[in-house]
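Design review, sub-item: ligand-bound model
Attendees: FS, YL, KQ
YL presented the inputs for the glycyl-adenosine-5'-phosphate complex:
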Amino acid sequence: MTAAPAVRPAVRMDEIVSLCARRGFIFQSGEIYGGINGFWDYGPLGVELKNNLKAFWWQRMVRDREDIEGIDSAIITHPRTWEASGHVANFSDPMVDCRACKKRFRADQLDGIAGCDAREGTSQHDFTEPRAFNLMLSTQIGASSDASAVAYLRAETCGSIFTDFRRVREAGRQKIPFGIAQIGKAFRNEINPRNFTFRSREFEQAEMEFFCHPGESAKWFEHWRDLRIQFHRDLGMGADQLRIIPHTTLAHYAKAAVDIEFLFPFGWQEIEGIHDRGSFDLTQHAEFSGKDLSVTIEETKERFVPAVVETSVGVDRTALALLCNGYAEEKLPDGETRTVLRLAPVVAPIKAAVLPLSKKLSEKTQRIAADLRKRWNVFHDDAGNIGRRYRRQDEVGTPYCVTYDFDSDTDAKVTVRERDAMTQDRVSLDSLRGYLEERLEGWR
Ligand code: GAP
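KQ shared the predicted structure:
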């Protein structure tokens, strides 16, 4: 056994941003034009990471359960949806403008902002009074440009879960309690997008609305709070990196709310919210649509508007948390330093890399890689020395490297190196698939 490597305790955000750009996880959208603030593109490794994260959420939240149905709704939801939910009237942040430099800031986030560069003799901004700035992004539908054509890009994915409630319940033959889940894009015209992808203007949410009897919502709230914190732990986030913070002030209709926070390099910040929303949502949509959204319990004939317990997690924020959680620079016993991304295998973009010791062996390793690719995202690399190839895989979080050497021809075995402990096993080619399956899919 090698000595445990020294793990650098504090991760810097600029290291994460630089790794993400260099290795094609995440970079600015429209980079060649100077980028566009609050919008990000996921490259070849980033899209794998994000897809894996979404698939894990979908498995846990939809497929593992009989009481949750999935949907995929339109991004532009009927405009009345946002009137009913209160977004048109109230979904705003307080904003101030500097009269001198013309920059715009969130009035509640003025600590630490850069000074004004347009005033003589002072760097103090000349702020206007705070004004409410609605965060919904709007668009026009069709050729006409009057007010009736205005529609909104959804500010959260749950809007259509409520408007689809009756249809999905009937189609899925579900009885209360049951939930509806969806993953998708949401848009907010954030005044100050910041901290890389943490606060973006276009992002993805994975939301689940659990419809239950109002008298049982407290019980379901606890159920979902506990399952959701476990989800993040199962993704490898340490107990000391996660915390649950109850809201001190609640919306008038809400019964309880907590945030799950992760310790980012820029401090504790929310990655998920769990809310007991009472019967507010369905009551509002029933009123605005004129449709009856109440349910009747068959046995007792009791009729009521279901209460909702919501779990709402940011996909991009969780992906960023996973990158921060996994990132380490380690000093190795031989004096070298390696960057390693300790991602849980379930989300790792590449599950295994197949590496021939020499280019002469590439034909055989290409065949091994092709076979493994039927099942996983597998990378083949025959360029450069083997140590450097291991480092390139460590840096992007590949859990296993499979090396084919000159003995492999005679003993039909390969060396499998594990990313974190860097231990190596000699594994027969016949059992390679099973070996990887056990380790990559043990969570299933
Ligand atoms: N339906 C409830 C809802 O949308 P929220 O707290 O506004 O609640 C839920 O958002 C989650 O969506 C947050 O915990 C966060 O992970 C993610 N999120 C919200 N705004 C975001 C933004 N501007 N950029 C990235 N993720 C965001």
